Amino acid sequence: MTRREQQVQARSETGDADFAPQPVRWRILIVLLAAIFMSLIAVSIVNVALPSIQSGLGASESDLQWVLSGYALTFGVVLVAAGRAGDIVGRGGIFVIGVVVFTAASVASSIAPNPEMLNAARFVQGVGSGLLNPQGVGMIQQYFRGAERGRAFGYFGSVVGVAVGIGPVLGGLLIRLGGPDFGWRLTFLVNVPVGIVTIILAFLWFPKPLFRRRPAGEVSSAGRTSIDPVGSLLLGLAVLAMLFPFMESRTAAGTWLLFPVGVLLVVAWVKWERRYAARGRSPMVDLRIFRTKSFTNGSVIVTLYFLGMTSIWVLVAMYMQQGAGKSALEAGTVGIPSAILSAIAANWAGKRVTQLGRKIVIGGLYFALFGLALSVAVAVLHEAIGLSVWWLMLSLAFIGIAQGSVISPNQTLTLAEVPLQYAGSSGAIMQTGQRMGTSIGIAVITAAVFVSLESTSWSTAVAIGFGLIALVVTTALVMAYKDQWDRRRAGTPYA
Questions:
Q1: 47: closest CA among 143, 163, 168, 138?
Q2: Which residues contact 465 (CB under 8 A, 6 or more apart)?
Q3: 3-class state of residue 204 by DSSP
Q4: For residue 473, which of 347, 312, 339 has the smallest C-alpha distance?
Q5: What is the DSSP string of 96-117?
Q6: Is 38 exposed, middle or buried (0-12, 13-18, 19+ CB in 10 A)?
Q7: Quick one: which of 289, 246, 287, 237 has its CA closest to 436?
Q8: Residue 391's CB: how many other CB atoms inside 10 A?
Q9: pLDDT tens-digit profile of 314-371?
Q10: Which terminal residue of the chain has fewer beta carbons within 10 Å of its beta carbon, N or C?
Q11: How far is 38 from 29, CA to CA, in rounded Å?
């Protein structure tokens, strides 16, 4: 088979053959981005509300940890199964269910009378987010192609940047507006109007019916009769077992015994998926997808990126408040330039990713390393000569450029050769890598910072943390170069 024939076959498998863009696709994107913005705000806004929650509900340190961890845990556990369910029974329907669950859980969180009820609501909120997020990625794959897909993912990245940056500021304003007893409840209620509008627009603009079997040729006849419940359960338990120790290790060291159990569950899941496929059934994840180097390389890149970069904002928030004596609102505002530049960079990169390919991601990773180096310099000079910590607004701006240049372009490049019938589940695999990278990175890097604080200052400890992040980002950069080389050798587009 010639290279041209291989490319034609790839376009057919990914759904590009005979593709006719639907006029409603941009309105669909608006709905998707509104819900994704809401789910991301729920992560970043809560960080500044934790002290108010503690005083308002009499929550313990463990309770506060689970306000954050419970959401992340259930989100990560249901991602891949939810993505596969959307691939089979209809992404629009699963998306709406996810938004309904998320919105109802937001209301429950806002009226929680005690820490136990709040954490239960946060668990449910994580389920809702896990249901809706992979449908967003899958529907962008479904309704957009080529350069338009890059633009759509660029808008996706812009929303990510704005949500992450504006969440802490919005949280600080709501707490100031509502006071310490009621303000934290507003941080959950703010999701409700967005959720209601999103549900209404989904019913108005999404193609009907919302639930439907995939068209002939997208999923095998066997695949249409099963969502692979055993595979879904095995992978969900594996993610749970591997993430849980990183969330509870400080209070229960014995939870580390779960990690090897999680590894064994992954092995069992892989064997089950192979056996399931050998029977002629449609598995939750077709493991042959990992033979596509662009998908495997891109998934590793995004996991490494989140393993390192997510910890930056945790360290900055702690450093600004505990090290520099700033308020929660001030700690939130230091990231505003970064959020703005992230949105601009994501939009710029989305329009050019089909022309520049991996070069954009590689350039973004260099921006990340430069921003980290400048941030270390600010922290060290603050301690040495009293340099203002507000210079972090400049150094972190380069981190924002990196975020916009890496996350969405990498998503476009990684999913470019993925068959449409696995758009949701493959996107969810990437998001699961993000969740695991985030949880592991925050646990390990913050632990290193706290250990350093026992013998050194905040500025030095943060510099050590940023140095560890730079090592992880450098590894991601090596993988990005590897993917560029693999693409050029194979003649894959977007090298």
A1: 168
A2: 311, 315, 445, 446, 448, 449, 452
A3: helix
A4: 312
A5: HHHHHHHHHHHHHHHT-SSHHH
A6: buried
A7: 246
A8: 17
A9: 788 888 878 888 876 787 788 889 989 998 999 999 889 888 889 999 999 999 999 9
A10: N
A11: 14
- CA nearest to 452, candidates 438, 439, 467: 467
Contact 464, 454 (CB under 8 A): no
CB 95 within 8 A of CB 131: yes
- How many angstroms from the chain centroid is the CA of residue 427? 10
Closest CA to 131 of 185, 223, 182, 195: 195
3-state secondary structure of 123: helix
Rounded Cα distance, 339 and 401, in Å: 9
Q: Measuring CA to CA, which residue among 309, 338, 291 is closest to residue 477?
A: 309
The 10s digit of each residue's pLDDT in 378-397 is 999 999 999 999 999 999 99
Collapse the DSSP code of 228 into the 3-class scheme (helix H, G, I; strand E, B; otherwise coil) and give the result: coil
The label of the residue with tokens 């291989």 reads 6
Q: Are 219 and 87 in contact (CB under 8 A)?
A: yes
Is there a contact between 390 and 319 (Cβ–Cβ < 8 Å)?
A: no
User: Are 302 and 480 in contact, with CB atoms under 8 Å apart?
Assistant: no
Backbone phi and psi for residue 491, each to the nearest 5 degrees, phi listed first: 75, 25
Q: What is the pTM of this model?
A: 0.81
If phi > 0 it is left, if psi is from -120 to 50 it is alpha, else beta; for residue 220 that is beta
Alpha helices per DSSP H over 386-457: 392-414, 423-453
Residue 398 half-sphere exposure toward CB, CA atoms < 13 A: 17
Which whole-number Å values give the CA distances from 416 to 13, 293, 340, 354, 483, in the listed order?
11, 11, 27, 10, 13
Calpha distance 73→224 (Å, rounded): 29
List, in order, residues 6 or more apart from 87 with CB less than 8 Å away.
138, 214, 219, 421, 422, 423, 424, 425
Tokens of 142: 């479904």
